[in-house]
Amino acid sequence: MEDAQQVTSLVDRFRLDGRVAIVTGASAGLGRQIAIGLGQAGAAVVLAARRAEALGETAELVRATGARAAEVPCDITSPPDCDRLAAAAVDTFGRLDILVNNAGIGHAVPATREAPEQFEQVMSVNVLGAYWMAQACARRMGSGASIVNIGSVLGLTTAGLPQAAYTASKAALIGLTLDLAQQWTGRKGIRVNTIAAGFFDSGMALEHADGYLDEIVARRIPAGRLGQPEELAAVVVFLAGDAASYVSGSVLSVDGGLLVT
To answer: What is the pLDDT of residues 170-222, one digit of tens each?
Structure first.
């Protein structure tokens, strides 16, 4: 009986019942699957993105899991918008426990031809947007809360494309994670971690030129395939809740082994 109770207790640590999560970039792709996964784990989910019409589709999928969902159109490059989003989560569901900084953009442009505004746009969304969201949410979070930044293996390696802005932004996100974890884990009880995501069968990865992903899989991914969105969502659920209560300031690669090649 004691062993059974211990197993039940361990499994319960992966549940997010009673918790409230914000997912940015939730209108499609990995963000949509992350939101669904959090709902399946029991969290109420606040869905944020610039495309308001697509948020409704995600909300229906989250509610189909039995979870509550709210839609808040938001531009994360605007600090007032980020503060409004965090406030809406508390106003709607009474608390805020989890932030998933998933929104991000990128492009492939040779460094000698990349315009200043192109570089600045990527940094504004991928780094500043994540920071403004973390600030706004941390002001409202209590002890036991979790911030999960969706980074990339391209913050740690290269993959054959000219992506200076994107790789710089994802490397910066790792540095931001380390500093915020140092500031907030002990003082506020807020854990901060980054997932170094590899190539997934969703979203931006599918925008590459024909043949590029096949080459990456063949040369760089020991698992021999692209990741599935549900595999990333499962790691987000782990980092969001009590199963990862002793994990903060970590960069967890979810890449099919790409970083070992």
So the answer is: 999 999 999 999 999 999 999 999 999 999 998 666 566 678 889 999 999 99
Chunk the chain into consecutive blocks of 10 residues (it has 261) and report each block's average pLDDT, rounded to whole numbers. Answer: 58 96 97 98 97 92 98 98 98 98 95 97 98 98 98 94 96 98 98 97 69 89 97 98 98 97 87
Residue 238 C-beta-side C-alpha neighbours within 13 Å: 15
- Report all structural domains of the chain as residue ranges with CATH numbers, in order of start: 16-260 (3.40.50.720)
Active site residues: 166
- The sign of the torsion formed by the CA atoms of 179, 241, 134, 95 equals negative
Say what the pTM is. 0.95
Is residue 152 within 8 Å of residue 196, measured between CB atoms? Answer: yes
How many residues would you count in the chain?
261
Ranges of H-type helices in the chain: 2-12, 29-40, 52-63, 79-93, 116-123, 129-138, 164-188, 212-220, 229-240
Q: Is 115 exposed, middle or buried (0-12, 13-18, 19+ CB in 10 A)?
A: exposed
